[in-house]
Amino acid sequence: MSSLDELNFASDFEAALKNPLARRSTIERGGVLEALVTLSSVNSPKEYFQARLAWTAYPSQPPSLKFRDPSTGRLDLATSWPICRGFRPQSLDACVNWCAEGFVLHPEWRTDPKWQWDATGNPLFRTIQLLQFEMDEFFEGRFKQ
Q1: Is the pTM of this model over 0.85?
Q2: Domain 3-140 falls in which CATH fold?
Q3: How far apart are CA 87 and CA 84, in angstroms?
Q4: Which of 4, 35, 41, 97 has its CA 20 to 30 A from that of 59?
């Protein structure tokens, strides 16, 4: 990670906070290249989830996506995950082209223009918007073991 990564992330983080489209979620800083996003589905507005988005390089690489238990900070609880398209709570990962875990599952996405990571604009805000879209359109409930 470079200081340029940190500066880019800090700038995009501040812009995401000010964007009116981000009103439905709470966005907090975690670690250096980490955001904690608390959100709910439009279809279940009282059921909250906290996503942790953590980059190893910003904006050039996609973030790791994990769902966090806000009371303990644990990232290893399947019950912290929503059931949505592409999310795999049992594996604690997601098969989507906007998180690092998706590219581990599908390395061919890295070179396919249709699926590869888009590092342009504000990738943090775009990732939050993609996450909110999945929650609004495909949320089926909280994963129960």
Answers
A1: yes
A2: Ubiquitin Conjugating Enzyme (3.10.110)
A3: 5
A4: 41
